[in-house]
Amino acid sequence: MCSGCDTPTRLTVRQAATEERGTHREQREHVAALHALLVTNALVTWTAGNVSERVPGEDLFVIKGSGVEYDGMTWEGITVCDLDGKAVDGVRAPSSDTDAHAYVYRNMPEVNGQVHTHSTYAAAWAARAEPVPCVLTAMADEFGGPIPIGPFALIGDDSIGRGIVETLTGHRSPAVFMQNHGVFTIGKSAKAAVKAAVMAEDVARTVHVSRQLGEPVPIAQADIDALYERYQNVYGQK
Ligand SMILES: [Zn+2]
């Protein structure tokens, strides 16, 4: 089963590492705690969704264990994997989305964190395979343009990871809506990827609501560029 989707996968279930060695405990505690933000922001149902983060200086990342429930999640619900997606520490089999996360870490060295959810409005745009047009200044700030659609891909091999990398490489958006599936986000940290997932759902909802009463007005490309530049380089505490 896919812990992201709870749908059957083509390949066999991933194996846990054979024992818990307690490595990278601090980072696993941090990533376990970030999963609570998926719940408080209403991005996930049951055990669907996952957060991962690259281990600094090592060819490893930490990711939610398959089927681990959010309520009471501890560091032991987070598994350490190598960049091929093989569990190296932890008693939980890693998320079935591990192949996708691993592919992105291998191919996008600037990415240190990833999130995947089936949040409602993002998945609704994904179901129509329609990019969210950039019609809000908050979208220009965060995404620098539309939120793109990635290809339809089955879980169980590199297909989803390839679709994410192909869609987001050279794109300003840290979020992609994979067709018929849901949102995948990338960031300089797991927390940044969580923020992108929260913001993607927020703007997907607002643009959807706007559509109900008419056609949203586009923002001129020069204004999108100016907003993005200011927000990414000037706004906030650096
Ligand atoms: Zn999924």
Please tell me how large the radius of gyration is. Answer: 17 Å
Q: What fraction strand?
A: 5-15%
Give the neighbour order of strands across the main sheet: 4-3-2-1-5-8-7-6
Shape: globular
Mean of pLDDT: 92
* Overall tally of structural domains: 1
**Second rung of CATH, namely the architecture:** 3-Layer(aba) Sandwich
The helix-strand sequence is HEEEEHEHHEHEEHH
Tell me the CATH topology.
L-fuculose-1-phosphate Aldolase
End-to-end Cα distance, whole Å, is: 41 Å
What can be said about the biggest beta sheet? 8 strands, mixed
* Class inferred from helices and paired strands: alpha+beta
CATH homologous superfamily identity = Class II aldolase/adducin N-terminal domain
Write out the distinct hetero groups bound to the structure. zinc ion
Tally the helices: what do you get? 7
| Poorly predicted segments | 6-12
Percent of residues in helices: 25-40%
The CATH C-level name is Alpha Beta
Strand tally is 8
GO molecular function: aldehyde-lyase activity; L-ribulose-phosphate 4-epimerase activity; metal ion binding
Family: Belongs to the aldolase class II family. AraD/FucA subfamily.
Keywords: Metal-binding, Zinc
Catalytic activity: L-ribulose 5-phosphate = D-xylulose 5-phosphate
Write up this protein:
The protein has 238 residues and is an alpha+beta fold. It has one domain (25-233): Class II aldolase/adducin N-terminal domain (L-fuculose-1-phosphate Aldolase), CATH 3.40.225. It is 37% helix and 15% strand. It is built from seven helices and eight strands, in the order αββββαβααβαββαα. Helix 1 runs parallel beside helix 6 (190-211) and helix 4 runs antiparallel to helix 6 (190-211). The chain is globular and about 55 Å long. The relative contact order is 0.16. The structure holds zinc ion (ZN). Zinc ion binds at residues 2, 4-5, 116, 118, 181-182. Keywords: Metal-binding, Zinc. Its cofactor is Zn(2+). It holds the Pfam family Aldolase_II.
